[in-house]
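Z., the sequence and structure:
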Amino acid sequence: MTDFTKHTIDTAPEESRPLLENSQKAFGRIPGLHAVMAEAPALLQAYQQVHKLFVEQTTFDKDELTVVWQSINVEHECGYCVPAHTGIAKMMKVDDAISAALRDETPLPNDRLEALRVFTLAVVRGRGNVSEAAVKAFFDAGFTKRQVLEVILGVSQKVMSNYTNHLAQTPVDEAFKGFAWERAPKAAA
């Protein structure tokens, strides 16, 4: 496997240094994902911008943001992002039952959040080719056309992070090691 560098502010390409400084200010440390992405300044910049847009400019609340992120992280089997977003959900004061259901792929505590997970997975698994029935079920749960498109924004953020972590085998940050995760084996049919 290719060995990717986890950059510091001092070792990063010049264009990535201010981006890593932003990470340091925002998190009090440089997350491993950002340290790896720093090798490609445009990727790190895009990731930070898409993250900011998804969190600050979509209509999703903290529980819904978590459902979109973790549904994708679990589907992509990202051993870095599932623990990271478990910790982030705790910081956002998301109910632990939501995090557990997402991590364990068990039903969420309410139908609306479950509809969001089902729709998000339909987008991911279908690569955007989603049946009219799936869209209708999403609308029937109270979501909007805007939120259909906002899910795509969340998917684009997670593709950047999940794929980077797969290729770089980014180790889980110390702050999130207590939330380590592996997908449970599926029962034989």
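The radius of gyration is 17 Å. The CA atoms of residues 105 and 189 lie 17 Å apart.

Let me know what you think.
H.
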